Amino acid sequence: METSSTKPKLLGASITSTSEGIDRISYLPDEILHNVLSSLYIFDVVQLSILSKRWNYICRAMPYLHFDIIRFGNERVAIFRWIRVITKRNVQELVLSFRLAEPFELPYCVATCESLRVLKLQLSGDMLKLPNHLGFCQLQLLHLLEVELSNEHLMSCLFSTCPLLEKLILGDCTFGTMTVLDIASTSLVYVYIVNYANNGLSYSNCNVKISCPNLKVLKYGAPMAKDIIIENLFPIEVVHVFFFDVRNPLKEIGMLTYKMIKNVPSTSALKLCMVSVRGVYRMAHEVRNSPVMFYKLKSLKLTVGIDEACMQAMILLLKHSPNLEVLNLFSDENFGWDENWKLHDPSESIVCLKSHLKMIQLTGFKYEENEMELLRFFLKNARVLEKLIIVWADFADISKKASEVVLEYPKTSSHTVVTFLDVNPKPKRFYRHNII
């Protein structure tokens, strides 16, 4: 029991008590106290442990330990001693962040830790070296951030020898001299490769191979690799493709995009960046005799320019997705199209527009004529449309003008709800059966 005169300050506030001198914070549940203390450095936690038997117990039972190598000075050995200790005490989640300006060798005690379920490692661009023996028998999540991957054989072993690994995130990682990044695992269900910070030099010299028969989510948001090989993705549900810092010819981009989506025909959600959409358009004539049919695709998200290239690619994808229910278009830039080009040949049937497409969202619209033409197209042809959302890029007063476009086409489903969003946080909604 402690009085107010002996209570330390915790997180900037004194430990409160009642008039009887009861320490109310000390009587909080262990989980809450552990959550609060997890934001403190280990030295601060140790200091709190001397307050009382209760606080000693709380600190000794901490499931989270927060170290700061700067406060250790150059005594890096002290950090690795702590790491060795916690790996022997059934640690389940380990987050390591180093800025060494030299290669970092993963401690053997970590690489063979049988209790570890989550490993997050940030190296600020330094090279990662792995020991020859790996023993992550319980690892479920591996997150590598700003890591230079060095040994392709050991990296392949890292992914394939973790029997319970479900989630892999490679954030702002580079491949160094590696010629292939081989991600092969029977347990992985989620793979995310993202790199918006670094240039594509290390990617252009490396092949990315993904062979995961139980994978459900694949997200690639990085520079184009030399080649991206996808195999055995039978149950895939979500595929995102975003090529960043692209300097390749459109035909090359189109070939790679087509090859990727050709190997994931069972996906239910597909998202493509504008350069990959333009690549699909560039390849459209060459693959016309061997189209990819997405019979299970329910949601399609495209970043586009409202121009002939992107719109023809969009039409092509709509034709090959007969059961599509949701279409989301983000207008990035507009170039217009030739006045002699038509958005769609009425003689060609688009099955999803007639029977399945229920929701369309058009984001970044600027009230340009080619955008209005696209809006008219959807209002005229989407026969079972239930919700149309238009998010304007700029001015709020545009939506009143746009509502006149809706009035011109009473053939849309009588239950369609049209919503206009702009800088005003309150959306303007028009119910189709009220305006015709």
TrEMBL record:
Name of protein: FBD-associated F-box protein At5g60610
Taxonomic placement: Eukaryota, Viridiplantae, Streptophyta, Embryophyta, Tracheophyta
